[in-house]
Amino acid sequence: MWRWRRGWRGGPGRPMKFRMLGIKPTQMMFGPIPPIQAEPIVMTMDEFEAYRLIYYLGLTQEEAARRMGVSRGTVWRCLDAARRKIARMLVEGRPLIITP
What we know:
By secondary structure, this protein is α+β, with helices and mostly antiparallel strands. It has helices spanning 45-56, 61-68, 72-92; strands spanning 2-4, 19-21, 28-30, 41-44, 96-99.
């Protein structure tokens, strides 16, 4: 398991909680063939991990939240953002980058 947290925001509020990832963070890119010169869509590792746990491994949101070490609401928000980004990638034909 890998611990991951997005950069410090520096503003008011609580700092982000660490997320437990089941994969090693590396940058991945998916895009149309032939490549187009469009602005890529950027997906974070926590969004990718939530999507992987729920749709690839078939876990419930509660099980995914336990594995990631966050609340079920956080998993839902990550999953919703990931679904929207994947839909935009497919519909608009833009590249998708998953960044650590």
